[in-house]
TrEMBL record:
GO terms for biological process: fucose metabolic process; glycoside catabolic process. One of its GO terms (cellular component) is lysosome. It is an enzyme of class 3 (hydrolase). The record marks 284 as: May be important for catalysis. This is alpha-L-fucosidase. Pfam families: Alpha_L_fucos. Keywords: Glycosidase, Hydrolase, Signal. Residues 1-19 form the signal peptide. SUPFAM superfamilies: (Trans)glycosidases. One of its GO terms (molecular function) is alpha-L-fucosidase activity. Residues 21-352 form the Glycoside hydrolase family 29 N-terminal domain. It comes from Hoylesella timonensis CRIS 5C-B1. Alpha-L-fucosidase is responsible for hydrolyzing the alpha-1,6-linked fucose joined to the reducing-end N-acetylglucosamine of the carbohydrate moieties of glycoproteins.
Length: 440
């Protein structure tokens, strides 16, 4: 009885804590990003490359993060996984060092995925890494401390879906996990999420972004009350960017636009037909084929493919968020580590043509893309069989053009629509990305 009472009290307090805060805020359609937020958007765009980490109880099942719903696993049985979660080899410093060495400038970590398990210490549910596992360590805290120490930005993935909680309203997915009440209890679940977000934005230092996912699980007219949630985030940390992987054009109150598995403007995976907004853009993609650890999927993209993604994303004015699914023992898969190293070697030499740039004045072409920083245009030639290349830059004057790494001059001839560059014969045919720097 006592327990019940304190639970009810805690709930009332948490609901009212949030309700109170809501009354002091303005409407999201009046959303004016603060100066800190604008600066954070710039820093985000400058960063260009991040690593996504999908880690949760599902990693133990080793079949990806959707196993709970795909196999209709009972929520109470599934929760027993927590009792055996002991990632003995987890070492935040090792993760962050390896990721930093790849040239990535931020990490996005799954604090709570659709399975509903919190990978951080939360007061609002015992179903969390500290209270429900023998590991008892706040993984997010260790990761956050290490990110802050090593100077890499931290973003937090947060699922709107929860296949475990009884108060989470049923959507298209998670219907077979045995939860009793399809209607759930929205007010309660909403308060729970906002309380957790408050913890995330209070207990872990500076957070670069909250990355929402799962909006698509309900009908489009479902009221997720995002306005209030976004305001809460911006009130707690004005520089924290809000992104939502809803697969549509951005809503009011969002600071970045997310694309899943396709670069902006492309739609091969079927999740990205939406228009491109003026907000900073980010595309997320998997390093093998799955977000969460999948033991049978060793089909990792080659380092060349990964580098090409980064370059193409930059040329399309977007960041690339490349995913790795850590193993249940707490290590990053060896193949992923090797890829990180290779990408890092390339970024060390050519990073200047990526970081801090924006999509260049020449739009993406079949032959490649351009990136630009002030008066420097980097022409990334990814697929060209001829030695000459037409750059449609109109009447724009050029001071000089040269091969980026060797500084060999490149011949420039004016033509009606711009200039024709003639590449030196010595330019290696098999380099991943032939970069020509053009200065205005
Ligand atoms: C999808 C999936 C989810 C994954 C996300 C990453 O929305 O539901 O499992 O975390 O994509 O982009």
């Amino acid at each position: 009885m006592n327990q019940l009472f304190s639970l009810a009290l805690a709930l009332c307090l948490s609901v009212s804590a949030f309700a109170q805060s809501e009354t002091t805020t303005t409407k999201a359609h009046d959303y004016q990003p603060t100066a800190e937020n604008m600066a954070s958007r710039q820093a985000f765009q400058d960063a260009k490359f991040g690593i996504f980490l999908h880690w949760g109880l599902y990693s133990m099942l080793a079949t990806g993060e959707w196993t709970m719903t795909n196999k209709n696993l009972n929520y109470k049985e599934y929760a027993k996984l927590a009792g055996g979660f002991y990632p003995s080899r987890f070492n935040a410093a090792a993760w962050v060092s390896a990721i930093k060495a790849s040239g990535a400038k931020y990490i996005c970590f799954t604090t709570r995925h659709h399975e509903g398990f919190s990978m951080f210490k939360t007061r609002y549910s015992d179903y969390n890494i500290v209270d429900a596992t023998p590991f008892k360590r706040d993984i997010l805290k260790e990761l956050a401390d290490e990110c802050h120490k090593q100077g890499i930005r931290l973003h937090l993935y947060y699922s709107h879906i929860d296949w475990y909680r009884e108060d989470a309203v049923w959507g298209r997915t998670g219907r077979g996990t045995g939860r009793p009440n399809p209607q759930g209890n929205w007010q309660r679940y909403y308060a729970f999420m906002n309380n957790q977000l408050t913890e995330l934005l209070t207990n872990y230092g500076k957070i670069g972004a909250i990355w929402f996912d799962g909006w698509w699980d309900q009908q489009p007219d479902f009221d997720w009350q995002l306005e209030g949630q976004y305001q809460l985030i911006h009130r707690l940390q004005p520089a924290c960017l809000v992104g939502n992987n809803h697969h549509t054009t951005p809503f009011q109150g969002e600071d970045i636009q997310i694309f899943e598995r396709d670069l902006p403007g492309e739609n091969n995976a079927g999740l990205s037909g939406q228009d491109i907004s003026r907000l900073p853009l980010e595309t997320c993609e998997t390093m093998n084929g799955m977000w969460g650890y999948k033991i049978t999927d060793q089909d990792y993209k080659s380092d060349t493919t990964l580098i090409l993604y980064i370059v193409k994303a930059a040329g399309m004015n977007a960041n690339l968020l490349m995913n790795i699914g850590p193993q249940p023992d707490g290590e990053l898969p060896a193949v992923a580590l090797e890829r990180l190293q290779k990408v890092g070697q390339w970024m060390k030499v050519y990073g200047e043509t990526i970081y801090g740039t924006r999509g260049g004045m020449v739009k993406p072409h079949d032959w490649g893309v351009t990136t630009q920083k002030d008066n420097r245009l980097f022409v990334h030639i990814l697929n060209l069989h001829d030695r000459s290349l037409l750059l449609p830059i109109g009447k724009q004057r050029i001071k000089k053009a040269f091969v980026y790494d060797t500084k060999q001059p490149v011949k420039v001839e004016r033509c009606q629509t711009g200039v024709v560059l003639t590449l030196p014969t010595a330019l290696s045919k098999d380099c991943i990305d032939k970069i020509i720097e053009v200065q205005f």
